[in-house]
Amino acid sequence: MARYKLHGFCQSGNTYKVALYMNCAGLDWEPVFVDYMNGATREAAWRGDVNTMGEVPVLDVGPKKLTQSGAILLYLAELTDKFAPENAEERSEALRWILFDNHKFTSYFATYRFMYALAPQAPDPAVMAFLKGRFDGAAAIVDKHLGQSKFMIAGRPTIADFSLAGYMFFPTEETGYDWAKSHPNIHAWTQRLKALPGWKDPYELLPGQRIAPRR
C-alpha cells in the first residue's frame, strides 16, 4: 500500500501540482480517481467523508486528510525535505509565490481554460475577455521574473515552481496559449521542469478520461 493517496482527476491542474511534486520527489504515492465531471465532489457523502470544501486535491497521509494544493506542497516539503525552502527567507518567498499563484495565476487561468475548452455551454465573450485579461497580467509578472531566474526562487526548483506549473502542461488546444510564442521565459522554465526526473504530463500521471476540447 502506498504511503500517500492523492484524490483527484487528470483535468485538475491543482491535483497535478501535487502529483508532479510527489513523482519528482520520488515519494511513494498512488492516485485515487474522483469523478468530478459527473458531480462526485458535490455529493453530500463525498463532502462528509473526503473534503467538506468539495474540492480536489485531497491527500491521505495515514488517517489524516490534507486539502488545498499549496498547503499540501508545504506540508510534504517540510516533512520530506524534497524541493523545500532552505531557510525562513526562502519559505516566505515560496509562500509569496504560492499565494500569488492561488489568487491570480492559477485562479484565473484554470477558470479560463475550463470555459475555453471543457464547459458544456459556450462561454460569454465578455467573461472570457475579463478572465484572459486578468491572467495575462499575472502571466506577464511571472514571465518577467523568470527572465531573471531559472526557477521561481533560489535558482533551483522548489514547491513554488510546482504550484505555478499546475496548468502549464495542458495542450495548447485546451488553453489557447502557445507558451513559446506568448511567454518565452515561462516556456523555457517549463522545459527545465520537464527535464526533472519523474516529470510526466497530467494525462499520463493522473486517472480519468481525457475530454476533447468542446470548442
Would you tell me the overall average pLDDT?
Answer: 97
* Secondary-structure element order, N to C: EHEHEEHHHHHHHH
Number of helices: 10
> Roughly what percent helix?
40-55%
Please give the alpha-carbon distance between the first and last residues. Answer: 41 Å
Ranges with pLDDT <50 over ≥5 residues?
A: none
Strand order of the largest sheet: 2-1-3-4
**How many domain regions?**
2
Assigned CATH class of the largest domain = Mainly Alpha
Estimated share of beta-strand residues: 5-15%
Name a few traits of the molecule.
10 helices; Glutaredoxin; Glutathione S-transferase Yfyf (Class Pi), Chain A, domain 2
Notes on the protein architecture:
This protein is an alpha+beta fold. It is 53% helix and 8% strand. The chain has a four-stranded mixed beta sheet, with helices on one face. Helix 1 (13-25) runs parallel beside helix 3 (69-80), helix 4 runs antiparallel to helix 5 (125-146) and helix 5 (125-146) packs across helix 9 (184-194). The longest helix is centred in the middle third of the chain and has 31 residues, at 88-118. The relative contact order is 0.18. The model has no long low-confidence stretch (mean pLDDT 97).
Q: How do you describe this structure in short?
A:
With 215 residues, the protein is α+β, with helices and mostly antiparallel strands. It contains ten helices and four strands; from the N terminus they run βαβαββαααααααα. It has a four-stranded mixed beta sheet, covered by helices on one side.
